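Long-time lurker. I teach an intro course on protein structure, and each term I like to show students one example going from raw sequence to a predicted 3D structure in token notation. This year I'd like something fresh instead of my usual example. Would anyone be willing to generate the tokens for the chain below so I can use it in lecture? Attribution to the forum is fine with me.
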Amino acid sequence: MPQPPTGAYRRLFAVPGTRAFTAGNLVARLPMGMFGVSAVVMIAGSRGSYALAGAVTATGLAATAVVGPWLARLVDRHGQARVAVPATVAAVFGSLALLLCVRYDAPGWTLFAAYAATATTPNIGGLSRARWAHLLRDDPGALHTANAFEQAADELCFMLGPVLASFLTGAFFPEAGTLAGAALLLAGMLLFTAQRSTEPPPRALTRAVSPIRTPGFPPLLACFVATGAVFGSMEVVTIAYADALGHRSAAGPVLALQAAGSCAAGLLYGARKPATPRLTRCLGAMTVLMSLPLLAARATGSLWALAPALLAAGMATAPTMVTAMTLVQRRTPEGRLNEGMSLVVTGLLIGIACGSAVGGSAVEHLSPAAAYAVPVAAAAVALLIDSASGALSSRRRAAALQPSPQARPSR
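-- Reply from a regular --
Happy to contribute to a lecture. Here you go:
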């Protein structure tokens, strides 16, 4: 008799120590959904340019993409607590510097420099997934559920984060979202790293090949880049679309609906019995569903019509990410899991950075409604990459099964 969805998660959190590190993980992860919206609202409101706001956030994300893998290697080598806490403190100082630069009308280049300083923000999702992988290394079914829960947690934070950021920036002052996000990040990371019993042991220098050189990993990384572009462009375009309709404060709640759809789909997906990952099907569904916001925006010009379209579009996100993360864990060499997950998060951040910049440019040169074509195109690119990779792998397997000319018997 199949267990109910809640049973899988009840079994998951029966593992000693998991509830404690999850609490810190959620507090530290919530700001991940706040920083982007807070920065865009803060900079666009002060400088009057969504292109500048998108470029600044893209610069910070690109810097994080460069620093992230290096930081993950340090975590694998020295442990989570020894590396993540000082890295978080440095990132908090970067956020406060951005706040002050905007508040006191500093030159434009200082915005880029300050936001780039937040690149030392640890990949809290990767740190948490590494703990699950360590604790559940002998239970693939439970690890599938844990991966789904982590993705649902991502979506929950990206659902609540924009709402909280929009409320704080609207009800108090434009910099309030960034200030609150920095405080939550530091508090959550301190709580998370204090749970030493579930922390994976640090690894000495390993001779394992780098994940980037592992067969099947590079095309997977390229899919993450394209998927990140979906997320980055959708956020900037939706904020601009709501602003154009005179409902800037509604941008956060509307974006939260996309995350809500993904969160619900992720929890249901995690309760299912794990099967062979089929990333192509997930990416195909995401491409189709991402076209719904474009159709709603172009056909109606209404924020209320856009809202259910975003909810439906989000339902393909979590299954896609859970499937992709499962493939990452399978293809990453032992002892380099943090590095492998950091690399794919780096790919996501590069994609988000590119999507933010392209989405902001499309808003200004086309229109907010037409700019919804950017996330559709990005999802289609991810699908094409995965399909091409799968076809190439099939040809290689077929070639390997054919006998070589030397092995054929002579007449």
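Some talking points for your students: Residues 18-201+210-397 form a domain with the Growth Hormone; Chain: A; fold (CATH 1.20.1250.20). The chain has one domain: 18-201+210-397.
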